[in-house]
Structure formats: structure tokens, C-alpha cells
Design a protein that fits this description.
The protein is an alpha/beta fold. It is built from 10 helices and 8 strands.
Length: 231
């Protein structure tokens, strides 16, 4: 059995809207108009989408990570906003707060993690452009302090599946890859990333290229695989 279980966040422990079509960015738009935005709401959202695409294209080749503030820099220039320092930080924060409104905990995930923490060391590796949002989600789920190590892509500069984000976490834990199992939901980011550094991986969902004994219907399957095994 592993010494440590390392978790993905989005799509694994929390449900979220991957695109930006269902979110309501009206509070962010209001802040932008206060800073001089002179275009309509739909065009405003499109400017953010275009800025994200530019940053994603620029970092796709090496899986380096960018911060939401980098996206906001492009938006501020495109819209010619009077936003520097604190004003830009407020716009960045408001945009992410609007965008994360649809994030919600997977039912039963908090209780499961607290039970697993009695038998295993726990850690988290998550891709994110805005670390404060992750910490807010963990606080809302009453998980603050439960993870021994929390590694966020925007803080280390590399996004999954880059090996360095996994190796950094294992080094912080003082563990070898064989002593930990990663739990995620993406074949490309989570399974290939973990396996690329020699770490086992359990993947939520059905994946044609993943052995069936490495697949979970949902996060609660871990209760069968790991919680029961330690009793």
C-alpha cells in the first residue's frame, strides 16, 4: 500500500465548468467599466477569452504555466483600461471570483479525505492560473491543513503533465514515486504525468488507454480501494 495519496482538484474533488460560457462575469465587467471599459459585456468576455488563448498558445509547447495576472495584463492593454497596481489586482480577483462561482465539492469528497487522512499522508497537485482560488475552495470544503503539501502550477511555473510539478511534490514530501499514488481525472494531464515520473495513478472515469484496475467510477471508489484495505 502507498504511504501517500496525492490528489488532483478540478474534476476529481470538485466539479466545475471547464469553459467560460455559463459563468456570469457581470461583476468583473462592472469593475472594468469603472476603469474605463467602453465595450459591451459580450465583447468584454470575448477579450478575456482571446487573452487566455494567447497565453495558452504561448505556453503549450513546454507546459509552462501562466498566472491570471498575465492574462489580465493583456486585457488591460486591449481595453486601454486605467488599471495598474491595486486596481489590476482587484480586476483579476473579481474575474476569478466570477469564474469560480460554479465550482462545487463532489458529494462525499470531504468526508472521504478526512477518513483517508487517518491512514495515509495526503497531498494535492493542481493546475491553476490563480492560487488564491484553490485555497478558497479548500477552505470552503473544510480541507485547509489536511494536505501536507499543496503544489499549484502557477506557483511552481509548470503545469501537469510536466514532470517537474510531480517531482517537486515528491521531493517536498521526502518520498519516492513508488511510495505515492496520484488520483486524477485526465488521461493526458494526470495519468501520463504521474506515470511519466514512475508514480502509479488511479483515474476517475472510463479511459480506453488505462487498465481497468486503475479506473474509478468516482472519488468514492477510493473507499473500497484504500480505506477498506487499511482496516
Amino acid at each position: 500500500m502507498p504511504e501517500c495519496l496525492i490528489f488532483d482538484l478540478f474534476g476529481t474533488l470538485v466539479e466545475y465548468e471547464a469553459g467560460r460560457t455559463l459563468q456570469d462575469f457581470s461583476r468583473s465587467y462592472k469593475k472594468a467599466t469603472e476603469l474605463g471599459c467602453a465595450i459591451g459585456y459580450a465583447d468584454y468576455v470575448q477579450v478575456w477569452d482571446s487573452a487566455f488563448l494567447k497565453m495558452e498558445h504561448a505556453t503549450a509547447s513546454d507546459n509552462s504555466e501562466f498566472h491570471l495576472s498575465d492574462v489580465c495584463d493583456l486585457v488591460v492593454v486591449e481595453l486601454m483600461l486605467d488599471a495598474t497596481g491595486k486596481a489590476k489586482e482587484q480586476l483579476t480577483r473579481q474575474y476569478m471570483e466570477d469564474g469560480s462561482a460554479l465550482v462545487s465539492a463532489v458529494p462525499g469528497a470531504t468526508g472521504l479525505l478526512k477518513r483517508l487522512s487517518k491512514h495515509y499522508r495526503l497531498a494535492l497537485i493542481s493546475n491553476t492560473h490563480y492560487p488564491p482560488m484553490v485555497h478558497a475552495v479548500l477552505k470552503a470544503m473544510s480541507l485547509t491543513g489536511l494536505f501536507e503539501v499543496v503544489t499549484l502550477s502557477a506557483e511552481v511555473g509548470w503545469a501537469k503533465p510536466h514532470p517537474l510539478i510531480f517531482e517537486f511534490t515528491l521531493e517536498k514530501l521526502g518520498l519516492s514515486a513508488s511510495q505515492a499514488i496520484y488520483v486524477g481525472d485526465s488521461y493526458e494531464r494526470d495519468y501520463k504525468g504521474a506515470r511519466g515520473v514512475g508514480m502509479d495513478c488511479q483515474l476517475i472515469g472510463r479511459h480506453a488507454r488505462v487498465p481497468r484496475d486503475h479506473q474509478l467510477r468516482n472519488i468514492l471508489d477510493l473507499a473500497i480501494n484504500f480505506e477498506t484495505a487499511r482496516k
